[in-house]
Specification:
Pfam families: V-ATPase_C (PF03223). The protein is α+β, with helices and mostly antiparallel strands. It has helices at about 20-25, 50-80, 85-90, 100-105, 120-160, 195-200, 235-245, 255-310, 325-340, 360-370; strands spanning about 5-10, 35-40, 180-190, 215-220, 220-230, 245-250, 315-325, 345-350, 355, 380-385. It has two domains: about 5-145 and about 270-385, Up-down Bundle (subunit c (vma5p) of the yeast v-atpase, domain 2), CATH 1.20.1460; about 175-255, 2-Layer Sandwich (Alpha-Beta Plaits), CATH 3.30.70.
């Protein structure tokens, strides 16, 4: 799994003040297995300072919501493919590209999110899209799960042993006595207890017709017997049978039951297959759209935080480190040390001269005011991963 560090630094980190030179300065801290991508950010309509501070907080919340929605879409794909990582990976693309390829060529979508509109309007559009996609994926997956559960229930009824499975395929009209006073009771008996049952069934309850037992079917675990008993004692027979660890099967004969069950199972199979395809398509396209929206949210966050942090006129360079978590962590630590002075009073040096972050109330206020309540860093940075 790759890690990413999206950041911005003022062009003033180099004497020339040129963005290209600033990018080269950032890139000079490269380590093996980590590389730096240029990241283009449009010049959005800034608005007032109060609006920017408010949007910083809104964007932080939206960032978290988008990440949670992406995780849900990913979980749905995992469930759809039963954890098959190869199939999952094939369907986790963004605009038909692997995420890293998409990020390398990222450009703001001017059609969906017109950057000439006020930032609050763009945030509102992104929020609506993310919420809609998340709800659609959850709803479709819930429908699929419901149908799948129903299908599994139907299949278990047909595939279990004679103590639990449906008896529609083994019962015949001849197995049932039709009388005003008599009825046929069905009892599933464990195979090891079959002889004992046959020698004692007449004493299980009163009013059992002598020598009326007959075997209907058997499987490796149970034998299914029919016993003729007076109707008024049928409930007592069931109770006594359970005490002996036999399984009464309270089933009324229906000559169409087997056909109905087969038809119901086939219908459930067809419905589950249809919803599987629909859920897959929605999760796949939803994942793509959600990740794309997420990157746009992060782009806005970098812009807003950069304006709040570095001020006007706009003069900062944005970039994104890509690599494994350990190399990215090393680059991050190096950059924070190199540019700790940008954090002002939030950073100082210990007795050995090492750069350290100050944990006091003023730093907390800075974080709350300029970073959407996140940890205060010497420059604008967002570390994230995408599984």
């Amino acid at each position: 799994m790759s890690s990413y560090l999206l950041l911005s630094l003022p062009s003033s980190i180099v004497k020339s003040g040129h963005k290209d030179d600033a990018f080269d300065a950032i890139n000079s801290h490269a380590v093996p297995d980590a590389r730096l991508l240029q990241f283009q950010i449009p010049d959005f309509k800034i608005g007032t300072l109060d609006t920017l501070v408010l949007q910083a907080d809104e964007l932080a919340k939206l960032d978290a919501s988008a990440e949670a929605a992406i995780a849900k879409a990913s979980d749905v794909l995992k469930a759809i493919f039963d954890g098959n990582e190869a199939r999952i990976s094939e369907n986790k693309h963004v605009n038909d590209k692997p995420f890293q390829t998409y990020l390398e060529s990222f450009a703001w979508n001017k059609v969906k999110y017109r950057f000439d509109r006020p930032i609050p309007d763009i945030v509102s559009i992104l929020r609506s899209e993310i919420q809609s996609l998340d709800e659609d994926i959850k709803s479709k997956y819930s429908s699929y799960q419901s149908v799948k559960t129903n299908l599994q229930t139907l299949q278990r009824r047909q595939q279990g042993n004679l103590s639990t499975r449906s008896l529609a395929s083994v019962l015949k009209p001849s197995h049932f006595l039709t009388s005003e006073y008599l009825t046929t009771a069905l009892i599933a008996v464990p195979k090891p207890n079959e002889k004992e049952f046959l020698s004692t069934y007449e004493t299980l309850s009163p009013m059992i017709v002598p020598r009326s037992v007959f075997k209907i079917s058997e499987d490796p675990e149970f034998a299914l017997f029919g016993i003729v008993v007076f109707k008024k004692h049928a409930a007592e027979l069931s109770h006594k049978a359970r005490e002996q660890r036999y399984i009464p099967r309270d089933v009324a004969y229906n000559e169409n039951a087997n056909d109905q069950e087969q038809a119901e199972t086939k219908s459930a199979e067809e419905q589950a297959e249809k919803l599987w395809g629909e859920t897959l398509r929605l999760a796949r396209t939803g994942y793509s759209d959600l990740v794309a929206a997420w990157v746009h949210v992060k782009t806005l966050r970098v812009f807003v935080e950069s304006v709040l942090r570095y001020g006007l006129p706009l003069d900062f360079v944005a970039a994104c480190w890509v690599g494994r978590s350990k190399p990215i962590a090393k680059v991050r630590e190096t950059l924070e040390t190199q540019y700790a002075h940008l954090g002002g009073n939030a950073y100082g040096r210990d007795k050995k001269g090492k750069i350290v972050r100050k944990d006091d109330a003023s730093v907390a206020e800075l974080a709350a005011g300029t970073m959407g309540g996140s940890e205060y860093t010497p420059f604008v940075e967002y570390y994230f991963e995408l599984a």
